[in-house]
Specification:
The chain is of the alpha/beta class and 238 residues long. The chain folds into two domains: 3-69, Hypothetical PUA domain-like, domain 1 (Ribosomal Protein L25, Chain P, Beta Barrel); 77-237, Alpha/beta knot (3-Layer(aba) Sandwich). It is built from seven helices and twelve strands. The strands form two sheets. The chain has a seven-stranded parallel sheet with strand order 8-7-6-11-9-12-10, with helices on both faces. It has a five-stranded mixed sheet with strand order 1-3-4-5-2. Helix 2 (86-98) packs parallel to helix 3 and helix 2 packs parallel to helix 7. The two termini are 25 Å apart. The chain binds S-adenosyl-L-homocysteine. Residues 162-164, 186-187, 189-192, 210-212, 214-216, 218, 221 line the site of S-adenosyl-L-homocysteine (SAH).
Length: 238
């Protein structure tokens, strides 16, 4: 079943006009035509059964029929990730969406050499990954923020700080179900500076953890940490 994330409000009898990209995807790539069924979701109103009403040059229009699934959301899990090269950052966002992160917060650290990211592109990647997974919410991608400020404004949720230094506790040993929400922190390719590491280790809400004896690339570390978290504390247990 084709699933599309749309910005429109969804309700029985609604008519929606898809944007040019999604219109092209449906009509040209997937060769769908009038009468064909798809599912749509907007992150708020659940998932809806819809039919293609018209395929025109200006785009595809859908008729929204009935709700197929009510809105649901996975665990309240944030991934905080230092900016890394674009291709790896895109992988991290896609995998975070697949692995059920609710938010991706981009952080600027001493050793990141970028302070901006293509947020529109990252949001599109997150939406496409959500479409494919069947999840009904799309992870929010927050604009880059200096790590000091991000930590100063922290809401207090437990922060699992992935620390490659080697002397931290294995991540699996510190995980327990976190009904109040949680976050995972991954550093940049150059790692955290000694000062940042000191500061992180002193935070009352942060726990340094190890992902094993090998240094992982940031994207691998993010995937490994999200997987461990979901398995030990998140919705892989259900
Ligand atoms: N440049 C650093 C490695 C950084 S790896 C060095 O060579 O020492 C990027 C990030 O992935 C790290 O900041 C950390 O958050 C995470 N990471 C990688 N390997 C890890 C491990 N074995 N345990 C915990 N975190 C790890």
């Amino acid at each position: 079943m084709i699933r599309l994330f749309v910005p429109h409000d969804l309700a029985e009898g609604a008519q929606i006009a898809l944007d040019p990209g999604q219109s092209r995807y449906l009509a040209v790539v997937m060769r769908q035509g009038p009468g064909d069924s798809i599912r749509v979701f907007n992150g708020r109103d659940g998932e809806w059964q819809a039919r293609i009403a018209t395929v025109a040059k200006r785009g595809v229009a859908l008729d929204v029929d009935a709700q197929a699934r009510p809105q649901t959301a996975g665990p309240d899990l944030d991934l905080v990730v230092a900016l890394v090269k674009r291709a790896r950052l895109e992988v991290i966002v896609e995998k975070a969406a697949e692995l059920g992160a609710r938010r991706v917060r981009l952080a600027v650290t001493e050793r990141t050499n970028a302070d901006h990211a293509r947020l529109d592109r990252l949001a599109a990647i997150a939406a496409e990954a959500a479409e494919q997974t069947g999840r009904l919410d799309v992870p929010e991608i927050l604009p880059p923020m200096k790590i000091d400020r991000l930590l100063a404004e922290w809401d207090g949720r437990p922060l699992v700080f992935c620390d490659e230094a080697g002397d931290a506790t294995p991540m699996l040993d510190v995980l327990a179900p976190q009904p109040e929400g949680a976050a995972i922190l991954i550093g940049p390719e150059g790692g955290f500076s000694p000062a940042e590491r000191e500061r992180l280790r002193a935070l009352p809400f942060a726990t340094p953890v190890s992902l094993g004896p090998r240094i992982l690339r940031a994207d691998t570390a993010a995937i490994a940490a999200l997987s461990l978290w979901q398995a030990a504390a998140g919705d892989w247990r259900a």
